[in-house]
Design goal:
This protein is an alpha/beta fold. 29% of the residues lie in helices and 16% in strands.
Length: 322
């Protein structure tokens, strides 16, 4: 089969995948914009495309048999541009890296690790044991709230329990009995949920119903010393409300990995928001990196290989989203 890995992100998965496939295939990596000679023709003739983005600027892949999203989220893929008979699948495997990122970030914020490092480089020993100004909090005994209990939420809950945290989950549907969850909250009780926890982790995908779900009113329900973490999609948290909550110190801090502005053709290195989050000292900013681990690559390659192999054998595919 002619398999195209479209774009820089998807191209990362192409390395070594031929060795994992049981049969030989014609594998090619194309640029995001399909601007190199022959790329548009190769894209149009692909039988399988592995990618993370599809828009009207791309050539219509008329011979396509299967589109594999190289991620869990597929909001960047305009499904209307694919032939209606073409199945679309996503892939996971990212939850381990994200869960480790969340726990590492929570620990770093609560122990004031970055600030202590910066100060000591300036010969400031404020955080030395025995100095009252350097006291910091522990995670143990606090409550962690997880909004969205899919692959990511479950991985976070499992690790949170290792630190003796009480785990609260807010989810659209009832989650049933779960050894890692202490309390379940329906989404229509988000206000009470926000009041009950010391840190909130947002792991929801972006949909019309989740856009700006976490708004100013909900920030007003959080504890003043609480922190919020976003590893879902940026706009699930209202952009202006988040900035205001941090700037006015309505909440203690934030760890933000998913944003509102991303690199594009017009600006390859933009600031990630229309608000100056970078000027605030109570937010840790990372460039949508939490899932980007070698483990994620390996696990997603396994899913891709499974689907390509099943396609060739005429078997049902896994993780079908259309």
């Amino acid at each position: 089969m002619r398999i195209v890995f479209h774009g820089e992100n998807a191209g990362t998965y192409a390395e070594g995948i031929a060795d994992l496939l049981p049969d030989p295939h014609d594998i090619i990596v194309l640029s995001d914009g399909l601007g190199q000679p022959g790329e548009r023709e190769a894209f149009a003739n692909a039988e399988v495309i592995v990618g993370t983005g599809l828009n009207p600027n791309h050539t219509r892949p008329e011979r396509l048999r299967f589109y594999q999203v190289a991620a869990a989220g597929y909001d960047g893929v305009d499904l209307s541009l694919l032939p209606g008979s073409v199945p679309v699948c996503n892939c996971f495997g990212h939850e381990v890296g994200i869960a480790e990122y969340v726990m590492g970030g929570l620990l770093a914020i609560r122990t004031r690790l970055v600030e202590a490092d910066r100060r000591l480089r300036e010969r400031d020993w404020t955080f030395q044991a025995g100095r009252p100004a350097g006291l910091h909090r522990e995670l143990t005994g606090t409550a962690l709230g997880i909004v969205g209990y899919g692959h990511i939420g479950k991985a976070i809950a499992r690790r949170a329990k290792a630190f003796d945290l009480a785990v609260h989950v807010a989810n659209r549907g009832q989650i049933g009995e779960d050894e890692f969850v202490d309390r379940y909250w329906p989404l229509d009780r988000l206000g009470e949920f926000m009041e009950s926890v010391d840190a909130v982790v947002v792991s929801l995908p972006l949909t019309p119903t989740t856009t700006s779900l976490i708004d100013g009113a909900l920030f007003g329900r959080m504890k003043q010393d609480a922190i919020i973490v976003n590893v879902g999609r940026g706009p699930v948290i209202d952009e202006a409300a988040l900035y205001d909550a941090l700037k006015t110190r309505r909440i203690a801090g934030a760890l933000i990995d998913t944003w509102y502005v991303y690199p594009g053709r017009d600006d390859l290195a933009p600031l990630p928001s229309r608000f100056p989050f970078h000027e605030l000292d109570n937010v840790v900013m990372t460039p949508h990196m939490s899932a980007w681990t070698w483990g994620t690559i390996r696990r997603r390659q396994e899913t891709m290989v499974t689907n390509i192999t099943r396609l060739g054998a005429g078997l049902p595919l896994v993780n079908v989203v259309r």
